[in-house]
Amino acid sequence: MNQLVVFRRVCTCFLLLLLVLQFAVSPAFAREDIGTRDALTDRIEKYLTDLKNDENSMGMYAGIAVYDLTDKTYLYRHNAERNYIPASNMKLFTTVAALDKLGPDYQWRTDVFLQGKVNADGVLAGDLVLKGNGDPTLMPADLQQLAAAVKEAGVKRIDGDLLLDESYFDDTRLGVSWMWDDEPYGYSAQLSALSVHKNFVAIAISPGKAANTPPTMAMEPATTYVKINNQVQTVAGAETDITVERPRGKNEILLTGTIGVSAKPYEEDVSLEDPALFVGDIWKQQLLAQGIGFSPSTQIKKTSVTSGVPFRTHLSMPLGEVVVELNKQSDNFYAEMLLKTLGATEKGTGSAEAGSEAVADVMKRAGIDTGFRQVDGSGLSRFDLVTAEQIVKLLDFAQQQTYGVELEKSLPVAGVDGTLKNRMLTSDAEKNLMAKTGSMGGVNSLSGYVTAKNGHKLAFSILINGIYKSKYGRDLQDFVGTLLASYPQITAPEGYVPAREKVYPLSVLLDPLFAQPQAVGVTAGVIVKSLDKTGEAAILYEKDADALLTPASNLKLLTTATALSQLGENYIYKTELYGDVPVTKTGVQQGNLYLKGYGDPTISTENALQVQEGVTIEKIAAWIKQQGIRQVTGNLVLDESFFDKERLGLGWAWDDESYYYNPTLGALALNRGTVMVEYKPAKQAGEAVTFNLLPKTSYVTLVNESKTVEAGKENTFAILRDRGTNTIRLTGNLPLDHPGDYERVPVEEPAKYAGTVLQEAMASQGIQFAPGSQLIVQTVPPSAVKWHEFTSLPLKDIVAYLNKKSDNFYAEMLLKTIGAVKKGTGSAAAGAEVVQETVASLGGKTNFDMVDGSGLTRYNLISARHLASVLEGMAKQTSFAAFDASLPIAGVDGTLKNRLTDLAAAKTIHAKTGSMTGANSLSGYLTTQSGERLVVSIIMNGYVEDEDFFTELQDRIMSIVAAYE
Predict the structure, then answer these.
(1) How far is CA 155 from CA 120, 147, 163, 283, 285, in A?
(2) If DSSP states are collapsed to H, E and C, what string results for 114-178?
(3) Identified catalytic residue from 447, 706, 806, 923
(4) Which DSSP helix (H) or strand (E) runs through 913?
(5) Is the dihedral angle over the CA atoms 146, 147, 148, 152 positive or is it negative?
(6) Predicted pLDDT of residue 26
């Protein structure tokens, strides 16, 4: 008998034995009240099945747990042990821990110190210090009261400075992996131990009295700390289309768009940079309003107070009242300030990390030892991961504590208040169900309490990820919530028969891999399909193949497949050089020099930053010299208009901005948007770390604050860029025994970077610009004369580098190129539109979300089936050879060079890898030992620990599939 058949039978028997044992050891409570409980189960399961059959909701995957707090039994569980991004349900962890550790009566202090004496004339001969201790509720009116107290003490003038102490918290302003494009808005406000007005200004724009008249704008609180550029226009009608922008690292707000003359006022909460200094501005205003003057030399500065007795202290409202606003209004700022307060009070460090450790201490007492990840207090980070079962355990734990009533008071009530005010109206859940909501792109959650018809109190949690249309997620929650409020008066759905789980040829071999304890919390979308068979026979294995997951770099398969299909494998990028007049023979070129980019990702300098042949800055400078040009009398004009001005992909994380994989984008860019900093220890401990900048350019400023330390000491060396600037800092300690290395660091405004380096290259060739010449970014005028065109390698070579090295910059430039060429708009959105059209033409569905070209954003949601359809469709295209050749080969090259090396069929595996925190993917082609051609797609989301295990799991799947006959 075939050994594989024997193996299958043995595995099948083993799995049956496991199932028998599982039922044998199941707790007795799980089978109580079978008739009613089955009706509840069938109603929910039928609803979930219907969702799976709808293309707008089939990608959703939910974790649901319902626990009877009266009987201490689970009524229902569905994927309750899987990890999900919880959104604002994370606030439940923060709230319970705060109530537990701090108590409902906890109040925050804000202290005023007088550092100096007040003389008979009311002059404070010293500094006035305002010290924050993390009060999230401090408002301008509170500062007014403190200012009045200063006046009452007889102070009429301050000769010293206004000092601000925010040292109770660390200086990390935003949560881990928060998205940069959320940053302008109040719900993503920066954090400081000294804060006021939740660290945002409220802007209201009202239309002018008639079309074409300027609208009016109000800002609360009024401040000079923020500069506003209001370009909004009043137009006819009642429609409003306003965009709010705040450049990274700046306190400048740009308002653009239109407001209808009959429209309601437009309101937006806008965040600001370095909030303690904002407090300082409001504090000074309040002091001035009290008639307190200042010396002309008085400055607003930061300090750290380590001793002294406060002159006056402001106390916040009690924590029990704070958590009401926190949860009913889902206030992110309150939650984050609360988490850092927990870190400061319980761990001695006011950081999110320390606060999360304090939360974890409480979770252990609640029976939640491991398996969850918390990186912020609010749930705004997509690094947070929890299970529905963990939340139900937390809700049960809270019921047993004295502060349980405080938690309940803080939760929105269905049909009554907070974020549930308009939900579940006229149902049994109205005025009954109390729960915390959570919502952001692709995520929706609802967890809390409801009283059933039999009087039993139920704790429940519904966590949903992979949402394509948000309505379906809310409807599922409202359905379950209403059902629970009616329990046990529930009837089973008529005619419903649970579908049998499909068994595929590879099920007996692959299913046990996902049953391992390490994989229980993970949602894995997997499909294995034969290219040599048709119909149902082609599907060798499926598991959650329609689940919409974060694909990481597997998204590059869509970008590159579309580029090859739509642009052609021999597409050539061009970079053009223009002048105001033709090249003259005098050596002095009158007018401007223009350099226009068309998105070539390969433009480089001739040093370690060059990774492919193609256009280099040195070649451009050499060509100009060959024309006999010695001087240009005008400006160097840089044209990047082929693309939009969005420098980063939507949803990219703010704390990745210093790293090469998070490059800045533009149609005219150089060295993949980065500079290189090579570094190594100095010759002796105590000396500064030595470094070398490539290219050697004045465009960036390096500040070396690092130090060489003795061999064996801790390596704390880091290279970071100040946000929104081109200042790069070398910090920390580098041991003497470190071999040295390099980092590529992104720079701002890529066109200006390319222009600066070109100017410097021309100068090295003896070509000068006239005094007063400038570097200008604008379009080439129609009157300009084209001098030369520089060209790239063919697209197939660019795609090969992109996929084998998984280069994010190449992928993003390619996506914008696709948009520019096919839609006339060089944006990621236009490029993604072409990708969707291409996927459809290749035989796939388009019910997925694609936001960038590289997979770096967690806004991307795609299924294993989508990826498999692209792989299958490309196998029939004339560009397949180029596409296939671009993929890493197992055990040979690219990101698969060191994987699957011991597999006989390794070289037949051509696949794209993908990896980032909590997400791992592998999709491509494989030829089995029997010669059958397969496409395989594996996407795994939701793992909290041991990333290596999931890489090994992918390799194990590939090994099994490759050996299958």
Answers:
(1) 9, 10, 16, 15, 15
(2) EECCECCCCEECCEEEEEECCCCCCCHHHHHHHHHHHHHCCCCEECCCEEEECCCCCCCCCCCCC
(3) 806
(4) strand 910-916
(5) positive
(6) 32
Structure tokens at 525: 């979308």
Query: Closest Cα to residue 276, out of 119, 170, 385, 363?
Result: 170
Beta carbons of 708 and 716 less than 8 angstroms apart: no
Omega of the bond prior to 221 within 30 degrees of 0, cis? yes
CA terminus-to-terminus distance, the chain: 14
Q: Which structure tokens are listed for 357?
A: 């450790």
- Which two structure tokens, joined as six digits, stand for 421? 């005010």
Surface-to-core class of residue 117, CB atoms within 10 Å of its CB (0-12 exposed, 13-18 middle, 19+ buried): exposed
Instruction: Give the pLDDT confidence score for residue 24 in this predicted structure.
Output: 34
Structure tokens at 3: 């050994």
Backbone angles phi, psi at 341, to 5 degrees: -65, -40
| 829's tokens | 């959105």
Find the helix or strand (DSSP H, E) in which 560 lies.
helix 556-566
Q: Contact, 598 vs 854, CB < 8 A? A: no
**489 secondary structure, DSSP code:** S
Alpha carbon of residue 916 to chain centroid: 11
Q: What is the largest CA-CA distance in the chain?
A: 107
d(CA 714, CA 612): 37
Q: Which among 316, 258, 261 is positioned nearest to 136, based on CA atoms?
A: 316
Q: What kind and span of H or E run contains 479?
A: helix 470-486
User: What pLDDT, on the 0 to 100 scale, is given for residue 946?
Assistant: 81
Q: Which tokens is 928 given?
A: 């089995």
Amino acid at position 577, single letter? L
Instruction: Give the Cα separation of 30 and 46 in Å (integer).
Output: 20
Residue 208 main-chain phi, psi, to 5 deg: -70, 175
The answer to whether the beta carbons of residues 934 and 528 sit under 8 Å apart is yes
What is the C-alpha to C-alpha distance for residues 958 and 910, in angstroms, rounded to an integer? 11
Q: Catalytic: which of 556, 596, 796, 912?
A: 556
**556: number of Cβ within 10 Å:** 28
Residue 239 carries which DSSP code? Answer: -
What's the rounded Cα separation, in Å, for the pair 213 and 231? 12
Catalytic residue among 192, 378, 410, 553: 553
445 is catalytic: no
- Report strand pairing: 162-165 vs 127-132: parallel
**Which structure tokens are listed for 459?**
């704790």
Residue whose C-alpha is closest to residue 438's, from 378, 391, 481, 377 = 378
Angle at 594 between CA 591 and CA 600, to 5 degrees: 170
Residue 556 designated active-site: yes
Q: Which two tokens stand for residue 176?
A: 């881990």
Q: What is the pLDDT of residue 945?
A: 80
User: Per-residue b/e over 324-345, b at no fewer than 16 CB within 10 Å?
Assistant: bbbbbebbbbbbbbbbbbbbbb
Q: What is the mean pLDDT of each run of 10 residues along the chain (965 residues)?
A: 37 36 34 59 96 97 98 97 98 98 98 96 97 98 98 96 98 98 97 98 97 95 96 96 95 96 97 98 98 97 94 98 98 98 98 98 95 97 98 98 98 98 98 98 98 98 97 98 97 90 96 94 97 96 98 98 98 98 95 98 98 97 97 98 97 97 98 98 97 98 98 97 97 98 98 98 97 97 98 98 98 98 98 98 98 98 98 98 98 96 88 96 95 97 89 95 91
Give burial (CB, 10 Å; 0-12/13-18/19+) of 105.
Answer: exposed
Residues 619 and 670: their CA atoms lie apart, in Å, by 13
pLDDT number for residue 906: 84
Helix (H, G, I), strand (E, B) or coil at 382: coil
Centroid of chain to Cα 468: 18
Q: Could you tell me the two tokens for 606?
A: 């001739």
**Pairing relation of β-strands 636-639 and 631-632?**
unpaired
Helix axes 828-841, 556-566, angle to 10 degrees: 80
pLDDT for position 273? 97
